[in-house]
Amino acid sequence: MTRIRHILFFFLLSSLGYSVDKTGTMAAKFLSTNIGSKAVGMGGAFTALANDGSAMYWNPAGIGFNRLRNVYVNHSDWIADITFDYFSLSIPLNKNRFLGINVTSVTMGEMEVTRYGNEDTGETFSASDNAFGLTYALNLTDRFSIGFNGKYIQQTIANNHANGLALDLGTLFDTPYGFRLGTSISNFGPKMKMTGNDLLVAIDVDESIHGNNESVTGFLATDEFDLPLVLRVGLSDDLNIGKIVRMTWALDTNSPNDNASYINAGMEIGLFDDLFKLRAGLNSLLLDDREREFSLGFGIKSPVFINQQFQINYSFEALKYLGDTHQVSFGFMY
To answer: Cβ atoms within 10 A of the Cβ of 121, count?
Structure first.
């Protein structure tokens, strides 16, 4: 088993060799913002765990290991007064097939419109990002699951918008050696392009000709941009310390199409049959000028009562320049 672990660690590290640096060149960048207070508390090392309502974001195969219906809500007061919310619902169709829906919403307050030479317009505008997903997971064996998450993406700013479609794919393998192996590809889809009424302008087609129509309506063309595609490969394992303490470690390699590859690492300690959990993690290791520094979190779980259970999780993430962020999630399984 030790030899197998060494091979897998080598595979994880070798995946870091393939990287590019196209920072700031993607559409719908909100799709790569880490979701879930449990996952964020573990530094974003969640691909091989994916065992709560945020699984549809990290690895859609994860809902295949959830035998109960799961209602999940996550809220984050993110940077620059931006609100980041996520909702998911997963249900077992039978013992091997699972269905889920998820909604991601990014909103911000009204902002004043400013124009060159006329700063005080009295007008306001808003911006928002949304994604609506449908997830399907299939257990091929009692240890191996595959999952798919298709989503409709919408970005809006003032009177302009961009729409797109994307697909997430994931696998999760609970190996007979005790550790878990997860892989996922997120945000695979066509490019997105902004359009809208604010791109309509009055133009003079040929300023050298006098007497022509000087107020022809023109349309400003915008470029198309790729979605933030990312490949994740993760490992996790449990260590039992006595009868009341469990420690879980997790390690993810991430290879995005808009930045260099990096590693996320996290740990969770469960106490008293996992009724109380403590978490810590490091995000974006090996990435030059990384913004995320470290994260902490905790969770409280109610005892199971007639196949019903309630969970509350909280995470704190320290950012180097943009300030700290907080996330809180509520999960109900029945």
So the answer is: 10
pLDDT (0 to 100) of residue 62 = 97
Domains of the chain, start order: 22-111+124-203+214-333 (2.40.160.60)
How sure is the predictor about 20, in pLDDT bands with cuts at 50, 70 and 90?
A: low
How far is 71 from 87, CA to CA, in rounded Å?
Answer: 8
d(CA 19, CA 27): 19
- Placement of tokens 């040929």 in the chain: 206
CA dihedral 238, 51, 34, 162 (to 10 degrees): 150
Residue matched to tokens 């320049």: 321
User: Tens digits of per-residue pLDDT, 187-238?
Assistant: 999 999 999 988 888 877 777 777 666 677 888 888 999 999 999 999 999 9
How far is 53 from 87, CA to CA, in rounded Å?
Answer: 8
Model pLDDT, residue 203? 79
Report which secondary-structure segment, H or E, holds 4: helix 2-14
Please choose, from the candidates 20, 59, 31, the residue with its C-alpha nearest in 3D space to the C-alpha of residue 235.
Answer: 59
CA count, 13 A, side-chain hemisphere, 103? 9
- The Cβ of residue 193 has, within 10 Å, a number of other Cβ atoms equal to 14
Identify the three-state secondary structure at position 278: strand
pTM value is: 0.88
Q: What phi, psi does 30 have (nearest 5°)? A: -60, -20
Q: Residue 107 phi/psi, 5° resolution?
A: -130, 160
* Maximal C-alpha separation, the chain: 90
| C-alpha closest to that of 191 among 213, 212, 160, 222 | 222
Residue 200 has what pLDDT? 85
Tokens, residue 207: 């300023």
The angle at the Cα of 26, spanning 20 to 29, to the nearest 5 degrees, equals 115
- Give Cα separations from 290 to 62, 234, 320 (angstroms): 28, 20, 8
